[in-house]
TrEMBL record:
<keyword id="KW-0067">ATP-binding</keyword>
<comment type="similarity">
    <text>Belongs to the ABC transporter superfamily.</text>
</comment>
<keyword id="KW-0547">Nucleotide-binding</keyword>
<protein>
    <submittedName>
        <fullName>ABC transporter related protein</fullName>
    </submittedName>
</protein>
<keyword id="KW-0813">Transport</keyword>
<feature type="domain" description="ABC transporter">
    <location>
        <begin position="24"/>
        <end position="257"/>
    </location>
</feature>
<dbReference type="Pfam" id="PF00005">
    <property type="entry name" value="ABC_tran"/>
</dbReference>
<keyword id="KW-0472">Membrane</keyword>
<dbReference type="GO" id="GO:0016887">
    <property type="term" value="F:ATP hydrolysis activity"/>
</dbReference>
<dbReference type="InterPro" id="IPR003439">
    <property type="entry name" value="ABC_transporter-like_ATP-bd"/>
</dbReference>
<dbReference type="InterPro" id="IPR017871">
    <property type="entry name" value="ABC_transporter-like_CS"/>
</dbReference>
<dbReference type="InterPro" id="IPR050166">
    <property type="entry name" value="ABC_transporter_ATP-bind"/>
</dbReference>
<dbReference type="InterPro" id="IPR027417">
    <property type="entry name" value="P-loop_NTPase"/>
</dbReference>
<dbReference type="GO" id="GO:0005524">
    <property type="term" value="F:ATP binding"/>
</dbReference>
<keyword id="KW-1003">Cell membrane</keyword>
<dbReference type="InterPro" id="IPR003593">
    <property type="entry name" value="AAA+_ATPase"/>
</dbReference>
<keyword id="KW-0997">Cell inner membrane</keyword>
Amino acid sequence: MAANPQALYSRQAETDASTSGKLLSAKNVTLEYRTPERLVRATHDVSFDVYGADRFVLLGPSGCGKSTLLKAVAGFIEPVAGSIEIGGERVRGPGADRIVVFQEFDQLPPWKTVVQNVIFPLRVARKLSRAEARERALHYLDKVGLAKFADAYPHTLSGGMKQRVAIARALAMQPRVLLMDEPFAALDALTRRRMQEELLRLWSDERFTLLFVTHSIEEALIVGNRILLLTPHPGRVRAELNSHQYTQESMGRGEFQQSVARIHRLLFEEEIAQ
Ligand SMILES: Nc1ncnc2c1ncn2[C@@H]1O[C@H](COP(=O)(O)OP(=O)(O)OP(=O)(O)O)[C@@H](O)[C@H]1O
Ligand SMILES: [Mg+2]
């Protein structure tokens, strides 16, 4: 079984990328929270399309509804207006085709070892046999450089290592879309850079489809190939930009800095001028 793990593990990504059609589609999505005191509108009339193997970034200031949009794509929140479709079918709840990696380091059950953490959802949601799940888990732990830590417990790992486990666990599930909500925001600057690099390396190996949330303009330009800019609260679409030309090496360069300044203006200054 699985003599060529790579071929087996990439099947879903290939299917989605080879159709290169629309994979995920948000149409005029308005999202609200109802609290006992009031109704909070988190996003208003947001539309975007994500294609197979896109690295699509939602970028906007704090409170503009990025996490809420991601939760809606994950199926935890239902739009009050508009719809979200994946593969042409309306999202009606959570599913194993959309896996979220969060910012918090404590997203791994602490009583399970690293490899058990990765195996668990493969057994439950993907119904893999014990041996298949273990093989796949070890494959992805190796991909994130943690093969040696398979039997360690999460509390013995650094923040960056915990995030790598969460990424391995998510990728092992081979979701149609990998959802990441500021996964590197709580890391120190150096580790954050390294993690961005690793994520891009993993992407070039596996070509998964990524929906990535950040409020860092630089991170959006480096991680994304397309960026959706959202206005301050409640988030509306401000602009959509291409950013496939940038890598970490671009960071010091003039063109990159001009893009940062332009996005900054779009996000903040033009809003004030209106
Ligand atoms: N559970 C909740 N109940 C009520 N209001 C909420 C809830 N969660 C978020 N909100 C509100 O919805 C809006 C959007 O919040 P959201 O967390 O999606 O923003 P964000 O863009 O992810 O911000 P950040 O960059 O700070 O993470 C904010 O005004 C926030 O106060
Ligand atoms: Mg958020």
